[in-house]
TrEMBL record, chain A:
Residues 29-70 are annotated as: Disordered. CDD domains: LplA. This is Uncharacterized protein, isoform A. Residues 32-47 have a biased composition (Low complexity). It comes from Drosophila willistoni.
UniProtKB/TrEMBL annotation, chain B:
Belongs to the class-IV pyridoxal-phosphate-dependent aminotransferase family. Its cofactor is pyridoxal 5'-phosphate. One of its GO terms (molecular function) is L-leucine-2-oxoglutarate transaminase activity. It is an enzyme of class 2 (transferase). This is Branched-chain-amino-acid aminotransferase. It catalyses: L-valine + 2-oxoglutarate = 3-methyl-2-oxobutanoate + L-glutamate; L-leucine + 2-oxoglutarate = 4-methyl-2-oxopentanoate + L-glutamate; L-isoleucine + 2-oxoglutarate = (S)-3-methyl-2-oxopentanoate + L-glutamate. PROSITE patterns: AA_TRANSFER_CLASS_4. The keyword GTP-binding does not apply. Keywords: Amino-acid biosynthesis, Aminotransferase, Branched-chain amino acid biosynthesis, Pyridoxal phosphate, Transferase. It comes from the Eukaryota. It comes from Drosophila willistoni (Fruit fly). One of its GO terms (biological process) is L-leucine catabolic process. The keyword Phosphoprotein does not apply. The gene is Dwil\GK25289.
Amino acid sequence: MSFLLRRNSSQLRLLMAAGNKITRPALSTTASSCYSSSSSSSSSPSSDNNNVNAVSPGASRQRKSTPSVPDADIKKSVFISQSHDIFTNLALEDWLYKNFDFSHHHVLLLWANDPCVVIGRHQNPFTEANVSKLMERGITLARRNSGGGAVYHDRGNLNCTFFTPRERYDRKYNLNIVTRALFREWAIKAEINERDDIVILNKKISGTAAKLGHPNSYHHCTLLATANKLHLGESLIKEPANYISRATASVPSSIRNLVDVNRNVTVAQLLSAVGYEYLRTTATALEDGGSVQTMQQRGFQLINPTEKWFPGIEELRANYSSWDWVIGKTPKFTVEKDLELKEDQHGMKIKLSVDVEAGLMKDICIQLPQSEQRVPVVTPLQGKAYNEQNLNGIVAALKLVSTSNVKQAMNGSV
Amino acid sequence: MTTKMAINAKDIFRNQHRLIRFIEQSIRLCSNQSLKAAQKQQQQQKSNADFEITTSINTQYTNAPEPIKHDKDLGDLFKASQLQVRLASPQQLQPKPDNDEELGFGKLFTDHMLKIYYHKSLGGWQKPEITPLENLVMHPAAKVLHYAVELFEGMKAYRGVDGKIRIFRPDMNMSRMNLAAQRSGLPTFEGKEFIKCLSRLLTIDSEWVPHTDTASLYIRPTLIGIDPTLGVASSDSALLYSILSPVGSYFKTGSNGAVSLLADPSYVRAWPGGVGNRKMGSNYAPTINVQKEAAAKGLQQVLWLYGEDHQLTEVGTMNIFMFYVNDQGEQELITPPLNGLILPGITRDSILAMSRQWGKFKVREDLITMPMVCDLLNQGRLLELFGAGTACVVSPINRINYLGQDLYIPTMEQEKPVHELIRETLTDIQYGKVDHPWGVVID
């Protein structure tokens, strides 16, 4: 039986490994992206690995028996996505990660999206951006599968995803491909800092995130070529309210476009430069093989991420665009808002506090500023989605309540 | 699919594609629909278990192609190891279409092509090269433009259920191509080396084959004479090239996949002493107008007849098969013999070899005439009539317009039609559902 399995795609190795505990510790998915960087790498590490938890003594033995492939046998392709929809591209990335066999074939996927804000897997969109304003402006909000911070994408930003089998994951190699391409094409000198950002003169032009699974892994990064910095800044301002949340917070960094450094940079040229650099470098060592090496590869491919070419992708896209994933996966958090109730000449300050779980408002309470008491509020809006409209609904309802009632409720619950 | 694994090793081997698919389904978290579809397919396969698909092919039922004899003064032969590649840049790439409706047949081509020049004055075959798909430049006196010194082939690459790309019996196409080259005064070549070059081209353009398990890429190798002189003589220079085209279905069919034919004895496609048995472009140009006439009458293809007795030779660009009850009361599959009028199709050869190996019915290569067909039809002994070719594997026929009369053939009304069985067996091999020496993996 194992003879049959070994014959086919490396994903079948998963079956042999099924039931094996992943012995290494939390795969650090330190993620940083252009407007931010992650606070800690330990945020929910286990959810970034796809797999399985039972223990088996044969685990390490089987892992060692995986034959290593010589460099010369690994061929590279550069896939260029024809789609500019963030959900489709996220679904394509996911499809390749789950279905493609990378053991003899490394892939670099290049994609660009129409304006959108992409938050990390464990982030709270409300602390990262003004969600209702985004909707007004027609900027899509999406949540990706890798950890890290929030980013703004538009057509002037090129995303690069480097796919390899898990054992050949090498983030430094990938980032060096990018810096080499920048130098070879435009003589731009870029550096890689200790957080794996690419910086030029201390300003970020790229941020990184990764997903390490079994048997495949990917490392993706952004590259700011000609992005709209004004829109970027405006989109990543959070809503004006007090959030208490344990989700991964973004750390803002100052950024720069490549076009600010060299006027000739365009996304099309950048795509070509990074692609050729990827093809001309040997598979695991950072060695330039020139046109001889490029000639032996599989070259550039345009990819049309539709159901016809990639069966099953529509379902992935539906998941990425669903409310349950984008908002519903938000870790538990609490919103606090200060309100003033006026009656007669007394002004009474209370604090409204809403506990939100999975994007739905679970507990709504009010609190007097001095006391620790929390009085639950009964409203039909409980259990509904947390958004600006519903929050304002609660505020409006509370404003109708008289201060005496509030005092009574407070005292009564002593 | 039960989770109890068959203990019998033979059972595992025979059902390996199902097992592997099952495992891959549980890994492929993409779609629950595909799991249900796979289960439905397994139920269908269980009911078709009459004919066994064996993984060995008995050599007494099939002829390996004869090795080609090259001309004495041919010169150097090309080798796949000399292959030079010029990859297409991102700007030269063709966008891929959204769905099959836009695809048709042969309207869209992939990003790269394979080119191998032959120049007698430069010693023979030159180094093969893979280049982005670009126009050919030639002298206006090039022989191909004047005397149709051209021959071509048709093959398909399939993405199998294991994700690997396979081609079907490429050695047969290569030998057929070389025979046609000899007849046209064009240089012959080593088929094996050409297949290796073709494999490289297919790996480069492999993303043009969708990741479903029902898609294919059509391969068109072509050999043309480009000698820029008007004399009707052998071409001293030639170009062997190949282009690839993603395909949907070959032609629009009428009701439920069957085609209707025009059988007009006044049009003759091939004659004894001619080149009807070679795949040359010059055989096809004269058929275009006849096809137009058929279309004008609301018919889809042309049934080519020959001779006083109106022998059936070919259907459109496919070989023809008839399944009927013979004089001894047995079921018999019959197809015209290779008498010089018939193109030796590879699907035709595969069907003959497979049916002979099955041994469930008689198989015969003999002439079929229209009077014979009418006779059998009247007696109710005609069961099925279908065409066979690479483009669509088998194409059932349900109507023939012959001498002003409409003959209705009950091909689609059979309970367990032989043509369906043949189609399933061949596609199982082509898509790697069964491991078979006819399906050559190239990835």
